[in-house]
Design brief:
This protein is α/β, with parallel strands linked by helices. The protein has ten helices and 13 strands. The radius of gyration is 19 Å and the shape is globular.
Length: 332
């Protein structure tokens, strides 16, 4: 069972969500992959969004995170060999604390000895190969990628530059086209990364499942507001709408028909990503616990559509009509 956390990836620039550029040439051909169309994050910051993805905590009860363990411990208690591999540095948030609950934990950026070297997400796959080779009967692996974080041009090798020009990438409106090219190249890199991870899982010839979602999206000078990056006090649509994918192996689909059918049934429903991931992952693995709520799992027929909320700067859950969204954001 794999959980992959993307970074700064917005659904708007994924071709599997209707983007007019081919940013998903590989995932669009993968069998057993389902893309959920209407998933919003509950936070536009990594240090809040990722801990919610990694625990049963959501915007509704975020402050209870101080008394919670993570999804990793849940899987450990269910008999899984666990691993957490991150391409981000320690940031003194619950990401560090939760990640270290795993049997195997590696923050690869902390191992870098040269200041100018940026590890690629590819290096996470090397750790995955080593972990899979342990052949534990049940494995749960969490990957925290660096995805599409600015500087976009540093997220992929130069030979993978498909949309050009991708220089310069200075944060100025006059370079918007170049910035979008570089950003879209980073999405294509994520596409390749996920496709290769799925390929590794297919080679296992066993029950396997993977969930991917991003922590938040990004602004790239999209309209006359000239907003850029993320983590603004008032989010935009581009910061909220995130990709959310579930892949199931052929063996898994054949043995868990009801789960697969529920995923297909729920894929076009509105989803609060942070509130759903924990329960969906446990559902995929068949892990039973009082903390699991099937009404929040998009892999369950009992999934219920609920009003979606956003965690504001005071750690309070606010309905979408109360967070200052502009007319253009609401329309989108």
């Amino acid at each position: 069972i794999f959980m992959v956390i993307g970074e700064t990836s917005r659904a708007t620039n994924w071709s599997i969500y209707g983007y007019n550029r081919e940013t998903n040439p590989k995932l669009s051909k993968v069998k057993g992959l389902t893309a959920f169309c209407h998933v919003l994050t509950e936070s536009n910051t990594t240090h809040k969004s990722v801990p919610m993805l990694m625990s049963s905590v959501s915007a509704h009860d975020f402050n209870s995170i101080y008394q919670q363990k993570s999804i990793i411990t849940t899987f450990k208690e269910a008999g899984y060999q666990t691993a957490f591999f991150s391409n981000q540095r320690y940031n003194h948030s619950f990401i560090d604390f939760f990640g270290k609950e795993a049997d195997t934990c590696n923050f690869i950026k902390e191992n870098v000895k040269h200041a100018n070297y940026n590890p690629s997400d590819d290096e996470l796959l090397e750790l995955v190969a080593t972990e899979l080779a342990k052949n534990a009967p049940k494995q749960f692996i969490v990957l925290h990628t660096y995805g599409s974080h600015f500087n976009y041009r540093e997220r992929y090798p130069s030979e993978n530059a498909f949309f050009l020009p991708d220089f310069p990438v200075d944060a100025e409106v006059k370079y918007k086209d170049n910035l979008v090219n570089a950003y879209d190249n980073s999405i294509r890199y994520t596409d390749d990364f996920l496709a290769r991870l799925i390929g590794m899982l297919q080679e296992q010839n066993t029950d396997a499942a993977m969930l991917y979602s991003s922590d938040h999206g990004e602004d790239i000078f999209d309209d006359n507001r000239k907003l850029f990056l993320h983590a603004s006090p008032v989010p935009s649509y581009y910061q909220l709408h995130v990709p959310f994918l579930i892949w199931l192996s052929k063996a898994y689909r054949e043995e868990n028909v009801e789960v697969h059918e529920a995923i297909l049934q729920n894929r076009e429903k509105p989803v609060a990503g942070n509130a759903s991931v924990f329960h969906t992952m446990l559902n995929l693995a068949g892990v039973q616990t009082p903390y699991r709520a099937d009404s929040l799992s998009v892999a369950n027929r009992q999934y219920l559509i609920r009003p979606r909320y956003y965690l504001n700067d005071h750690n309070l859950p606010k309905s979408l009509d109360k967070i200052g969204l502009k007319k253009e954001d609401i329309e989108q």
